[in-house]
Amino acid sequence: MTPPEMEARIVRYGDLKPCRTAFIDAHTPGSDQKENFTIIGGGVSEAADQHVHLTIPHGFNIGAAGQPPKCRNSLHSHRTAEVFFVLKGRWRFFWGRWGKAGEVVLEEGDIFNIPTGIFRGFENIGDDYGMIMAILGGDDAGGGVIWAPQVIEDARAHGLVLSEQGKLYDTKKGQALPAGVGPMPLLSEQELANFPEPTTAEVVPGYVARYWDMVALSDRKPVLVIGETGMLRDRPGFEVGFLTRGSSTTEMHRHDRPSVLMPVKGHWRVVWEGNAHYPAGEATLAPGDTMSVPEHLDHTAFPSMTGEAALYHVVATGDPAGPTWTA
Q1: What's the pLDDT at 291?
Q2: Is residue 25 within 8 Å of residue 74, measured between CB atoms?
Q3: Contact 147, 127 (CB under 8 A)
Q4: I need a surface site. Which of 133, 204, 232, 262 has the fewest CB within 10 A?
Q5: Does residue 87 contact residue 110 with C-beta atoms inside 8 Å?
């Protein structure tokens, strides 16, 4: 049985509340059908009506993007880490000032730790509605989104204006910038020169981990996917682990920070011991569910049914959430 105190820390896939006006490209043809979800933390939404499911600080943010086929997310950058794993569908990620410096296609379960400080975008190239889950570094996610200049110009042509404070105004609804507030300035050519243009060969080996490689490596013990000693060596302010049926255990463990469980395949049973704040109990998670486990709470997770099972685990490390680290 799941006590209400813990059920309140679980965001079920079927309960996710989308925002269709979260970002400046919400009216731009080709991007106007996407849905954005803010699961843990405030994220980087530019819209006032974005629903935040869990506001508990974790040291990182969890979000998601759902898009029909051929829908894309426009070129942007962040000051902190941005990590995606594919929950449903087939996705193409591309990067560079014009999105032509490099690209990679991700299948279900694959994960991409996008290098900080490059313009990036993504599109659903599958045949059905797709979903990618996102981890953003820091509790404030770096203070917002940095858009490629052409994205801001295209958005203005379709009625959306971003203020210099990062708030979105829809001229189609009669909204206008407040008195004394200017539009978000476009990056200058000098500023744009500071955004790297790495090739596919430079990015993919150190920043992409494939689902079946992780499955093979986690057949007996969980694998650290993102971390100082992980498959993708980085210190973005959090670690991402991966476990399967073979590496799951009924042995309890705890963390000194809140952690997050995110199934990608199969159903997972999470069991925890009680403490002064949370009664003992258990819960079952399905792909797309997100569970926040409180700090200092003994818990474990293991598959509850036969068949394929895989789960991502995220916990903050206390490292600066700024530019990502490379060896």
Answers
A1: 98
A2: yes
A3: no
A4: 204
A5: no
**Quick one: 13-206 is in which CATH superfamily?**
Jelly Rolls (2.60.120.10)
What is the chain's length?
327
C-alpha neighbours within 13 Å on the C-beta side of residue 166: 10
Which ranges of the chain have pLDDT less than 50?
327
Q: E-assigned strands of 140-276?
A: 146-147, 160-162, 168-170, 208-209, 223-227, 232-233, 238-244, 259-265, 268-272
Q: From residue 87, how far is each of 43, 111, 228 by CA, in Å? A: 19, 10, 25
Does the domain at residues 211-316 carry the CATH identifier 1.10.10.10?
Answer: no
- Token code pair at residue 287: 């792909």
Query: What contacts 24+ positions apart, CB below 8 Å, involve 189-195?
Result: 192/97, 192/149, 194/117, 195/77, 195/97, 195/117, 195/118, 195/119
Tokens, residue 15: 């309960």
Tell me the pLDDT tens digit for each residue of 274-319: 999 999 999 999 999 999 999 999 999 999 999 999 999 999 998 8
Structure tokens of 259?
Answer: 């952690």
Interior/surface letters 229-268, b for 16+ CB within 10 angstroms, e for the rest: ebbbbbbbbbbbbbbbbebbeeeeeeeebbbbbbbbbbeb
Domain 13-206 identical in fold to domain 211-316: yes
Contact 119, 95 (CB under 8 A): yes
Per-domain residue ranges for the chain?
13-206, 211-316
Q: Helices in the chain by DSSP H: which ranges?
A: 4-7, 149-157, 189-192, 200-207, 211-217
In this predicted structure, what is the pLDDT of residue 47? 67
pTM greater than 0.90: yes
